[in-house]
Backbone:
């Protein structure tokens, strides 16, 4: 992980802030747009961003969209034909022709959410192209974050987007879409923030995001605040949190209380007694779906990205996070997380766990074993 100075990094909270900024950037594009997303849903938000991409293509902008084949199944059926008809180049990452299995190569998904516009600005985070309100099931929007980046950090972000586009184009035998980039990165200083762009892939950077977290956890001296949607840390990550708490660091975890994947939530809850016994504070967010993948350490170090803290993100999927070394940015993210905890989370105590019916605790233990079995079947050993 290499931090570079001179960046402007703007925190965007939820789709309410993210999608207007993204649409405005696309509408202002003059040469090139790269968009990578795990989900690109055929809903109001998907239609809105699709229309912006089509408008850009009509102006002569080279628009390149890459969507995961599993997360973007409705995109393939409904939105992809419209985009291609408008002149947008579209690639599907590992198109799913049959149901997802536990075979490792089928679990290697494109989970990044990265957009680059004209090489002059980029968006990185955890927000998919999907309506915030989850089909009206909840009164409050899905809780998530992204960042808008300008400055020297654009160099690795642009290079990563271009590299993955070329790789998937060649692997898909769509060589005509593996064209030279049109917009080099604008790397002139745009602010004062030191930041790093870190990806996880299955070649050179297999453990890059996890190692960045572990390094920061080991160096923490005052406080660790983590908000993570799908939290099922491996042994090294769990031990790093326990070690930090043991040396007097205040550790706060904000996790899902309302989930679209109940098995994983129950599995995570099986870890609660270990964390609570170590003095780690646990909060579950119940106001809506928590989809964030962010952290703040010692009010100085922060990260916003797509990577969950589980085996599927840290060991399988293609992920991208921005890491920031800046007191002001860390303060903004920490204040936002504190507001989320106050407005929509409930703290769990050791006594709360002990009062749970035996059946509930048994279901958590069973879910934990099932998730561990799934990780094992995918080909990972006890060390993870």
Residues:
């Amino acid at each position: 992980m290499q931090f570079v100075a001179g960046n402007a990094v703007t925190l965007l909270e939820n789709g309410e802030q993210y999608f207007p900024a993204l649409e405005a950037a696309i509408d202002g594009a003059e040469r090139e747009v790269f968009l990578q997303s795990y989900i690109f849903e055929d809903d109001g938000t998907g239609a809105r961003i699709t229309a912006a991409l089509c408008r850009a293509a009509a102006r002569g902008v080279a628009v390149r969209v890459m969507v995961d084949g599993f997360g973007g199944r409705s995109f393939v059926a409904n939105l992809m034909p419209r985009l291609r008809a408008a002149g947008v180049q579209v690639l599907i990452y590992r198109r799913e022709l049959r149901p997802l299995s536990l075979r490792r190569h089928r679990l290697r998904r494109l989970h990044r959410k990265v957009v680059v516009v004209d090489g002059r600005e980029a968006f990185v985070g955890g927000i998919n192209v999907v309506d915030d309100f989850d089909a009206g099931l909840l009164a409050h929007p899905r809780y998530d974050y992204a960042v808008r980046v300008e400055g020297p950090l654009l160099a690795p972000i642009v290079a990563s987007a271009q590299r993955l586009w070329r790789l998937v184009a060649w692997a898909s035998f769509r060589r005509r879409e593996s064209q030279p980039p049109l917009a080099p990165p604008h790397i002139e200083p745009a602010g004062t923030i030191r930041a790093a762009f870190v990806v996880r892939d299955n070649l050179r950077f297999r453990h890059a995001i996890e190692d960045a977290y572990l390094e920061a956890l080991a160096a923490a001296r005052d406080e660790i605040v983590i908000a993570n949607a799908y939290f099922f840390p491996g042994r090294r990550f769990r031990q790093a949190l326990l070690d930090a708490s043991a040396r007097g660091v205040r550790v706060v975890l904000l996790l899902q209380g309302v989930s679209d994947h109940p098995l994983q939530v129950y599995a995570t809850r099986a870890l609660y007694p270990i964390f609570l016994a170590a003095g780690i504070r646990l909060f579950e967010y119940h106001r809506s779906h928590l989809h964030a993948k962010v952290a703040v350490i010692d009010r100085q170090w922060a990260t916003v990205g797509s990577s969950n803290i589980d085996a599927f993100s840290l060991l399988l999927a293609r992920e991208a996070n921005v890491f920031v070394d800046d007191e002001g940015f860390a303060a903004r993210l920490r204040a936002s997380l504190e507001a989320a905890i106050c407005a929509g989370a409930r703290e769990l105590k050791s006594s709360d766990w002990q009062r749970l019916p035996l059946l509930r605790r048994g279901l958590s233990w069973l879910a934990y074993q099932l998730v561990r079995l799934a990780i094992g079947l995918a080909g990972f050993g006890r060390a993870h």
In short: DSSP finds 13 helices and 15 strands in the chain. The CA atoms of residues 227 and 254 lie 5 Å apart.
